[in-house]
Write a structure and sequence with these properties.
The complex is a heterotrimer of chains A (about 375), B (about 270) and C (about 290). Chain A has about 375 residues and is an alpha+beta fold. Chain A has a 6-stranded mixed β-sheet with strand order 6-7-8-3-9-10, sandwiched between helices. A 5-stranded antiparallel β-sheet of chain A has the order 13-12-11-14-20. Chain A has a 5-stranded antiparallel β-sheet with strand order 15-19-16-17-18, with no helix packed on it. Chain B has about 270 residues and is mostly helical. In chain B, about 80% of the residues lie in helices and about 0% in strands. The two termini of chain B are about 35 Å apart. In chain B, helix 2 crosses helix 11 and helix 3 crosses helix 10. The relative contact order of chain C is 0.13. Chain C has 13 helices and 2 strands, in the order H-E-E-H-H-H-H-H-H-H-H-H-H-H-H. Helices cover about 75% and strands about 5% of the residues of chain C. Chain C is mostly helical and about 290 residues long. The chains are: A alpha+beta (about 375), B mainly alpha (about 270), C mainly alpha (about 290). The interface between B and C is large, with 86 and 84 residues.
Chain lengths: ~375, ~270, ~290
């Protein structure tokens, strides 16, 4: 069930009539018989900031490299802006790539690096240098034009790589773990700059990352990948609050999973008998299922409420012991243990500076959540 | 781990072993006495005599020309071979090319020399070229084993080169040939210089192969030295040795400087 | 992508014509007979109008087989090459190890010192050993002067001088591949061994040595194989009794002017060498796969 079904120019994927900018159809890539990318079909729309999210070995980098032209597909096709990319080498594609290692040419200055692509197009020196200057201003590196890569810091090199890949105004920009090498603070700042750049230039971005926080912050839509396949595609809230599988639920953020059997199936609610929870759990919305089907209830840590007394008016309330408390500054994360032995994770924003009533180790608390706060997963 | 003294001492002796003959050559080239291994006083007389010997000068000139030409051609061919073997992935007869490019490194010189000479003779009787043997045939022979050495040096440098540099260039619109000249070549340049110097030295130093494949009138410096040395120790050879050592030391110094520049950059 | 084929073709064709084909020519001439002609061998294919007669004369090989000189020379060459390579390994391994464990500025210095002699004239260095080893040479003069001996030692024109010369000349070829391998050795492996209770000697035998095996093989082959066919060193430092196969080939060619026999000697040498060369390639391929 989509959170919002409003059709708007900012959300072309929701409009059934919109033409995708990039069409990936049944794309497969095999290395020595092993499918690194397995029958992937995906549509990406113009102006999107699309993130391919997954762990190492899931095939996201291979998929990106096929878009760039560095790998040839074993099967399937790629279409960019209506043009079939079969057999087209990287230097003839309307794509540009920002490499994970930045790949700055060590023997050329920043200026020459950024101008390289323009010169290959046949642009004259004067015009190229003007465009380069403009681009360097955009990434806040004016004055660095004459420096060589080894004279720059990591963050500066990243901007040069970005400038170099954007200066040609490609139709599609491919970014391979663009923020991976930066420290946390720099990463946060750069994330917003990246979004700003993308919006002002109107370039379609495809980003590959393993960092789900990054994917959630940057993207218009996320494609979650596992073992060469796309498991779910959706806007960040969609993927976070309505994961389609346990894998997605667990990969994007943390989640508490209860395995259970369907014991009551009604149009407006269902109940799951869960041995793990030691109780029957209530779900306040209809779920397509059959009686006795094994399903999983997924509830996020921040949706769990911890109270000392049994909360009134809540169908789902379990007694648990607080095993660990991790204080993270803005959040507190609690690890709880149910009598059945199952462990749960709950998190809570620290809204008060000083909380004399704060829940602590070894306390017995009631864990509860709203009837509609959980999602039921069939796989 | 405690650093013992045995290892450094052993190594010092090893280095001494490597350098003893060289040092003695240098010392005795400045020896006044004709009895080469008996010290008779400091003198540069033999250096002077050396420069007046037309046979040695002529041979040195030929050796120099051959070395420069064959080193240059060897670098071109060796770099191509190294690039192909490093970057071209799998292709038909790749194993054969690999084998042919590395075998000269271990092949005994007498075999290389004999086989090339027999080839030249057969070619001459079949198609008329090469007409007689001389500088051309020596150059061909030296290029053949020189390129194997260049290929090793360049291949090792290419292996350390981040391939995403070349991919980035292609991504920005450069065709493969352009990528090679704009990106690959400048970055591996120090290895090319080292390879050239290596091929140059090997050519200058070669005796056996040149003896087989040369013809009348084309005597190389090692051939002249060999004939003198066969007869016994001689003082002008000592003088020559000093000069050679000085020149080579300079060459190696340049090569090392270039290689360090290369590794400092990326 | 025909451009690719052109790039492959250039070095490939050169090597094919000037490296591989010559071996075929050698094999061909080894089955012809010597002749007083220029070139001094008979053609193996005789044309009479449209009739061709192929004459393969294996007499040269029979000749090698019958005359004990050749078999002796082959065995001697293998023995000398093997022993020299082994000695070079014993001397070279500690040196390579030392250089690989040295801190940076010194390391490049040591490497340069190892490489430098290699780049000075090989001929001149062998010549220098002549000066060292002769009866009134440096070593003998020194020993006589200090009174350690009263008769000069005969060191030149002996087997000993040949072993010495080969070890000396090929030592850098042993040190460099060993160094390349040892330099890549992960220091933390040695630390892990120590942490688990391994004393320095145990760490060396159980960790360092096995991991340096590819370097040892490469170095050994780079010395052993070319040394078999060595000519200059036995010629200048050896005596009439030190007959190595390289010298035999040279003499057959330049003195006896018997090209077919020289070719036969070369062909047999090549066959004997094929096995070690294959081993080297296997070791290289395994090293590349790591």
């Amino acid at each position: 069930m989509a959170l919002s079904e409003t059709v708007s120019p900012a959300r072309p994927w929701a409009d059934g009539a919109a033409e995708p900018f990039v069409r990936i159809e049944k794309l497969t890539k095999r290395f020595a018989g092993f499918p690194a990318v397995d029958d992937v079909s995906l549509d990406i729309f113009r102006g999107e900031l699309f993130c391919l999210l997954g762990g190492s070995g899931c095939g996201k980098s291979t998929l990106l490299r096929m878009l760039a032209g560095f790998e040839q597909p074993s099967a399937g096709r790629i279409e960019i802006d209506g043009q079939d990319m079969a057999g087209i080498p990287p230097y003839e594609r309307p794509t540009n790539m920002m490499f994970q290692s930045y790949a700055l040419f060590p023997h050329m200055s920043v200026e020459k690096n950024v101008a390289y692509g323009l010169r290959r197009e046949g642009m004259g020196r004067a015009e190229a240098m003007e465009r380069v200057g403009e681009m360097l201003r955009m990434v806040q590196l004016e004055g660095f034009a004459g420096r060589k890569p080894h004279q720059l810091s990591g963050g500066q090199r990243q901007r040069v790589a970005l400038a170099r890949s954007l200066v040609k105004r490609p139709k599609l920009l491919l970014l391979d773990e663009p923020l991976g090498a930066l420290d946390k603070k720099l990463r946060e700042e750069t994330q917003f700059e990246l979004i700003g750049l993308q919006e002002s230039l109107g370039v379609t971005f495809v980003i590959v990352t393993h960092d789900q926080e990054e994917a959630m912050t940057l993207s218009s839509r996320i494609g979650v990948m596992d073992a060469g396949r796309i498991v779910q595609v959706g806007e960040p809230p969609q993927v976070y609050e309505h994961p389609s599988t346990r894998f997605v639920a667990d990969f994007v953020g943390s989640v508490n999973l209860f395995e259970g059997r369907v014991v009551e199936d009604a149009p407006e609610h269902i109940r799951l008998a869960s041995a793990e929870a030691g109780a029957t759990l209530y779900v306040g919305h209809g779920v397509s299922c059959v009686p006795n089907q094994t399903m999983w209830l997924a509830v996020r840590p921040e949706k769990l409420r911890l109270t000392r007394d049994r909360p009134a008016g809540r169908e789902n309330a379990l007694l648990a012991e607080v095993e660990e408390v991790a204080y993270m500054g803005n959040l507190s994360v609690f690890q709880l243990r149910l009598p059945t032995g199952k462990r749960l994770r709950a998190s809570r924003a620290n809204v008060a500076r000083v909380d004399a009533e704060a829940i602590s180790w070894d306390e017995e608390v009631w864990v509860s959540w709203e009837d509609t706060a959980a999602v039921v997963l069939a796989q | 781990m405690r650093r013992g003294i045995a290892l450094p001492v052993f190594c010092a002796l090893g280095f001494l072993f490597l350098y003893a003959p060289i040092l003695s050559l240098v010392v005795f080239s400045f020896n006044e006495s004709r009895l080469v291994t008996v010290w008779g006083g400091f003198s540069t007389r033999w250096d002077g005599e050396l420069f007046r010997d037309p046979q040695i000068l002529g041979a040195a000139w030929i050796s120099l020309q051959v070395a420069v030409i064959s080193a240059t051609i060897a670098v071109i061919l060796g770099t191509l071979a190294a690039y192909v073997l490093s970057r071209f992935g799998r292709f038909r007869s790749r194993a054969l090319l690999t084998g042919m490019a590395t075998a000269p490194l271990v092949m005994p010189e007498v075999i290389t020399g004999l086989s090339l000479l027999l080839l030249f003779v057969s070619m001459e009787s079949l198609i008329g070229w090469p007409a007689g043997r001389g500088m051309t045939t020596i150059v061909i022979a030296h290029v053949t084993f020189g390129l194997a050495y260049v290929a090793v040096v360049v291949q090792s440098r290419l292996a350390g080169l981040d391939i995403s540099l070349e991919e980035a260039a292609m991504d920005l619109g450069a065709r493969p040939v352009r990528v090679f000249f704009d990106i690959t070549l400048p970055v591996i340049a120090p290895a090319l210089v080292a390879g050239w110097l290596l091929a140059f030295t090997l050519s200058l130093d070669d005796l056996v192969v040149a003896s087989f494949v040369t013809g009348p009138g084309a005597s190389t410096l090692p051939m002249v030295i060999f004939s003198k040395v066969r007869l016994g120790v001689s003082p002008d050879v000592n003088a020559l040795a000093t000069i050679v050592i000085a020149v080579v030391a300079l060459g190696v110094g340049i090569a090392v400087w270039q290689l360090r520049k290369g590794t400092g950059n990326d | 992508m025909s451009g690719r084929w052109l790039v492959i073709a250039v070095p490939f064709v050169w090597l094919l014509v000037f490296f591989l084909v010559p071996f075929l020519v050698v094999a061909k001439i080894s089955v012809s007979d010597a002749a007083i002609a220029m070139p001094p061998y008979t053609p193996i294919l005789d044309w009479e109008g449209l009739r061709a007669t192929l004459t393969l004369s294996f007499g040269n090989y029979a000749y090698l087989w019958e005359d004990a000189l050749y078999a002796t020379a082959y065995w001697f060459s293998l023995k000398v090459a093997f022993v020299s390579a082994a000695v070079a390994l014993v001397i070279g391994y500690p040196m390579a190890y030392f250089i690989a464990r040295s801190p940076e500025p010194k390391r490049t210095l040591y490497l340069t010192l190892v490489i430098l002699p290699f780049w000075t004239s090989f001929l001149l260095r062998v010549y220098a050993w002549q000066g060292f080893l002769r009866s009134n040479g440096v070593i003998n003069n020194f020993l006589l002067w200090t009174g350690v001996i009263d008769q000069p030692l005969v060191m030149l024109q002996t087997d000993f001088a040949v072993y010495l010369g080969i070890v000396y000349t090929y030592l850098p070829f042993m040190i460099l591949p060993l160094y390349a391998n040892l330099a890549k050795l992960d220091e933390s492996l040695l630390e892990a061994s120590a942490d688990l209770g391994g004393r320095p000697l145990a760490t060396f035998f159980h960790v360092t040595l096995p991991l340096s095996a590819p370097g040892v093989i490469a170095g050994f082959m780079l010395v052993f194989v070319p040394a078999i066919g060595e000519f200059v060193i036995p010629e200048l430092l050896g005596g009439p009794g030190t007959l190595m196969i390289g010298k035999v080939l040279w003499n057959e060619f330049f003195q006896n002017r018997d090209w077919p026999v020289a070719s036969a000697v070369a062909t047999v040498m090549l066959l004997v060498l094929v096995v070690p060369i294959m081993l080297l390639r296997l070791a290289q391929a395994r090293a590349e796969a790591e």
